[in-house]
Amino acid sequence: MAENNSLAGIERLPRHEFDLDVEEQKQLQTQCEVEVQKVSQCSAASRQDGLFRLWINVWMICITTVKCLT
Questions:
Q1: What is residue 15's DSSP assignment?
Q2: Is the pTM of the predicted complex or chain greater than 0.85?
């Protein structure tokens, strides 16, 4: 908008050109919510994967330790 304000007369866009209508706002809000949910699910899956890998590593250390002790 700062650039628009610096333009001369006919080149300048009216203020309403920068406003979103209600339907556009709702659509963008919905898209944002969907994207946030995708990221949250991906993050949760990554945490679960990390915990599973940690559990496998601990289990392998335990198995190896038991074999060494016997």
A1: G
A2: no
